[in-house]
Design goal:
1523 residues, mainly beta, 6-stranded antiparallel β-sheet, 106 strands, 13% helix
Amino acid sequence: MSESIQVARKQLKQHQQMQMLQQHQYQRQEQHQQHHFESSCYLSSKSSLSQQSFSASKTSSRRLKTSVKTEKGLEVVKLSPLPKRAKRTYLAMDKDKEVIGYVIPVFRASHEEVRGLIEAREDDVTEEGINYVAMRNLFVRESKEAMQVKVVKKSRETHVRESAERVELSRTMEEWSEFRKKMNPDSLTHRPEFIVKPRGQTVWEGNTVKLHCTVAGWPKPRMAWYKNNVLIDAKAHPEKFTAESNYNMHSLEIKNCDFLDTAKYHVSALNVKGESSSVAHLVVKRFQEGEEAGPLDPKPHGYSAEHGVTFETTIIDKFEVAFGSEGETMSLGCTVIVYPTVKKYQPEVVWSRNSVPLKPSKWVHTHWSGDRATLTLVHLNKEDEGMYTLRVNTKSGFNSYSAYVFVRDAEVEVEGVPVAPLDVRCHDANKDYVVVTWKQPAVEGSSSIMGYYIDRCEVGSHHWAQCNDNPVKYARFPVTGLVEGHSYIFRVRALNKEGVSRASRVSEAVIAMDPSDRARLRAGPSAPWTGMIKFTEEDPTVGVIPGEPSDVVVTEATKSYVVLAWKPPVQRGHEGVMYYIEKCMSGTDTWQRVNTSMPVKSPRFALFDLVEGNSYNFRVRCCNSAGVGEPSVATGETTVGDKLDLPSAPGNPVAIRNTSTSVVVIWGASKEVTQLVGYYIECNVVGTDVWMPCNNKPVKQTRFVCHGLTTGTNYVFKVKAVNAAGYSQCSPNSDAVVVQAAVSVPGKPTGVTMLEAVKDYMVVGWTAPANNGGADVRGYFVDYRTVRGEVVGKWHEMHLKALTTTSYKAENLKENVLYQFQVRAMNMAGVSKASLPNAALECKEWTITVPGAPVGLHVLEVRDTSVVLLWEPPAFHGRTPVNGYYVDVKEASAGEEGWKAVHEKVNKLKYMKVSGLKAGASLLFRVRAQNLAGVGKPSANLGPILAQTHPGTKEIYVDVDDDGVISMIFECSEMKEGSEFVWSKNYQAMTDTSRLTIVTEKGKSRAIFNNPSLEDLGTFSCMVTNTDGISSSYTLTEEGLKRLLDISHEHKFPVIPFKNEMAMDLLEKGRVRFWTQLEKFTSACQVEYVFNDVIVSQGKKYTMNFDKSTGIIEMFMDSLEVTDEGTFTFNLVDGKAKGTTSLVLIGDEFRELQKKSEFERAEWVRKQGPHFVEYLGFTVTQECNVLLKCKIGNVKPETEITWSKDSIEIAEDDEDAKKIERQDGELIFNIGKWVIKQEIQEEKQKGRKKAPADEVPPPPRPKISKQDAGIYEVFLRDDRGRDKSKFSLTDAGLQAVMNELFRVIANSSSEIHVRSTEHGIILFSDVTYHHEDLRVNWLMKDSKIAASERVKAGVTGEQLWLKINEPTEKDKGKYSMDIFDGKDGVKRVFELVGQAWEEAFEEFQRLKAAAIAERNRARVVGGLPDVVAIQEGKSLNLTGNVWGEPTPEVCWMKNERELVSDERYKLKFEAGKFASITIAAVTTADSGKYALVVKNKYGKEAGEFTVSVYNPADDESKGETKG
């Protein structure tokens, strides 16, 4: 019984295992189906949904399927979460739930599903790998199996089936056992293996692509993605790449694909067991038809699933072709509009030069403000010249704009020297060697370049050292002698006969080091860390002489130098090697070491000082501390000379018109050229000898656009090639070309749409092409085709004659048939390509009541603040006719809510002038039509239109010629070939040609009014075809017409204009001159002279003159008589123009004029003899001298001149005669002159001496006084006549002289100054002279100062002063001095406050203290002689008078030693004033220098004297001895 139970249990267990295996197999099949469904969903939605989109998947019948709408309106499927009880098992079972084996799942789902699996089963995930998880789950499930005992009766069929199943189970268990052996961790380690390889894909631009792969391997491999063998750093570019790795599933996401993402993508998996890789190709296609778009064509935009929008990028305010000079700073900028605006999203802005992206540096600054991209080039150099491109990348694509930047050479310091070279670079840098290259400049100067100097500077210093003594001709030079590990920069200067150029821009810094070391520094890790370290043992080689170098070759050979290169020896030890270079002249066996002083470290060496034309062999030896190795194999004979030849001349250049300021030059490439650097293009204005460079940086292509040319000027061009050897010969000159804009076919029309549809016809409209090809569009051609389902027919022409409007009525169509239309534009150059066809439209009758959209929108007269908008009425008017229009405007960057109405009342015209615009704004316009049913839909947007006045734009002006003809004139300076003036009235073609006559001459058009009247009122406009929209208008109003007609009448019936009406002048001799001057007249002008309606003619009484060069008409009369009273008239006739001018002389006016005439005649008679030109008057000089002056004329030497005062003649011996002077026809009497008496002068002349007191001159007399008053007269007499002049220097005359004197004195006064004394403060002002009658008032705070003992005013010499004795704080304030100048007075002000007061008061106190000290200082005032001679034995008594307050101290000194009062010296000091010394019976010992010294607190003084004691006996003996 127990055995049967055990057998039953065993069978039951086997049955349960089989069921479990079958269930797992069923789930495996279901999983495979799910993967197939998910893959198909993923592929179908991949192009339209982003990572954030929902994925629809089918899991089991228990999951609920719901439909959810996103914010963008997309309907997606969302499934309910998988219940926990639905966890999948890893046991394979048959249909009866018997375990039949074990299954390892294959993960083929997307990343989203794998990520969900990880989150749902985080507790089951470990680093052992998916195999360990499967095995562990198996054993857990086995341990949880419950034992159930059940007795079942079986049939034979069942028993046979179970036996077969047991056999199968046995075989399965054996396989399972083998599998478990493989599950041993030691056996699992293996190299990476790609289970699923990445698949190549082809997508459209703007889509997002994911490359997937599944990799097995243990340990877990590390993944790396490459693009064209360049490592992709996804973390550095998260906006472009996202790399993920989850559960051995790896992916690379490429966002917003563009054409440049087309590449070979390589994925590498690496672990300690090895490396595996796989390749996938990605092809990105563009949305386009026909030929491939160029680099400047607009790029397509794609849908951004991440943001749910399609970004449209517009670049406006574009920078134009720019010109700068070296050293300047240039900014390039564009305004970028990205629509729609997404919060916190910014596009990627990339600047590039010649297709090379620019990185910020000290020379390049970039800025992005959110709507404007700016590139600033600091300190321009010729290296900065090139094509600059702004590329704006968004999630939907990109847009770009390019323009060329030209950099001119800076002004040379010395005329004729070459300009600086450019593009200095360093190559082949080694430990002590580098090759410097550069490009030759475009301008060689007045003579050819003889060579170049290379300078180097160590980084961190400012010292430049010249590398070559002799200039090198090649643009390549090896620099040796560098210090290993140091960084250097280089520059180059060009040399010609005139001198040396400026230095080029410095090169990038280069480090002198071994290339292998540099490579190790630059290279990053080639693969992730594997955890393995390899050790290599090397045999010690220290102390071993290195082997010989290999592969010694000559890399460069010129006539200036030869460069050798070689490979280091294999055997060189750890310490490194250095090299010696040897040379041998061909034909000899003598080897000469070149670098004897210092071996080189680099496997490169440049040899100089070789003889040009000789042949040499070279070899290299290695050396180290152990010695010098064997020489290498010789290079073979090398002849010293230039190996690089000059390029051959380029082919003939061809100049083609491009724009109004540029020309395209194409030439043939140089046929014989090696290592071409590029080409330089030069231009020349025909008729001159000056060639100017078009580019300052060589270009390699054989096509170049030369900008900056003068419109309408003839140019010829030539080209020269350049390589390292130098310049080629110039190509032949091109044919002369006139700089004008080229004409091409227009662009494609856009916006083809249906405007109206009826049963058998359709009205189609379109928008004119944005690019008219440089010439006005003359017409359009419309094609059509039928569409039946997915089958389209062939294109057919609808008409043969070109259309002039942007709409067309396509007739004879079939009802309910679908049609497509395309349009082509035509200008003088030809027909454009066809536009994109519209969507298929059905021909059936419309039932819309409101009008359709207006068409043909265009603008004229674009100005800074206004623009004229014109349009055509809609083709479909609705149920009632159109009765008006509404115009809307918005800024280009604004959204749909930015539209604003331009006006409130309906506009019934088909044009409108929109004013009040913001200068520089980019605007869009649209128009809506209105009928009785309502307002229709808006037209297609026009724009963006930039509100900016075109440079050089002129306005229409009105002119009235001499014949009274009224005309409107419009001038254009930008006329092109085929340009015409087109006049219109009220912006419509003028049908009535009888009103205006159009006359056009070159760049000027004149519209002449044939018969101006009220019929001509309106707005006249004129546009110039084949230009950039140059146009203008003039509105003729009723008031303006009246004004023009008045001017026209004046011109038709002209009046001779007078510059001056008739006037009269009195001439000498009393003659009378009647005259007038004409402003405008012809040579045919005639004059009629009339007096009192009687024509007078030339004769004795009248003299006439008409100077037609000046237009002056004159009539002269010698005198006026009583009969000459009346009216004088000039009548003029000049063709049909007339003029009259008159002068009336009657009554008192005539009699006054007659008196004046008689007086003038008497004056003339007087002036025939000696006379006064200016009568006697006075003047006061700046020195205050009073002079009586007069001017005389027509005098002779014998003319007698006499002065008198008060009728008393001034004789020659009078004192006043010395005051009279005569200078150049002028008589002067100096009233205040100081005259020395005649007697004193005569005595001095005779040499007779007098007492000194008599020789002192008296003090100077006043300039003028009352004694000088009187009547002064001057008389002129000779045989021709006499004249006199009188001046009264009395009363009013004297007062006038004094007032003028006072004025000069007052104005000569200086500003008030301050001076301190011991008594107080003095304010003073200096004048040139002071007169006793001059009134001077001093004021303090605008109040007159009263004189007192403390404050006094006075004069000392020429100084006016105010003394303030013992000043106090009350004396601070504003002081002013008023000096009478004959009228009001001159005021001088001084502010005695603040610092001025403090300094003056402090100085007063100091001087006061010093005066007190000086006054009370102790001193010897007298009583002591200088020398005292006394006989020996006599008594000496001396008394000195002493002064001092306080009483001084007194002492006596002898020979600088103080004496003390004793029996010999009696010293006394009495009454504080008398000091005495008494010496009784002096001896010779008392002889010496004595001094009386007095001293008190204010000072000290000594009164010195000498005492000499003599003996008479001694004197007698001395006398006898002498005798």
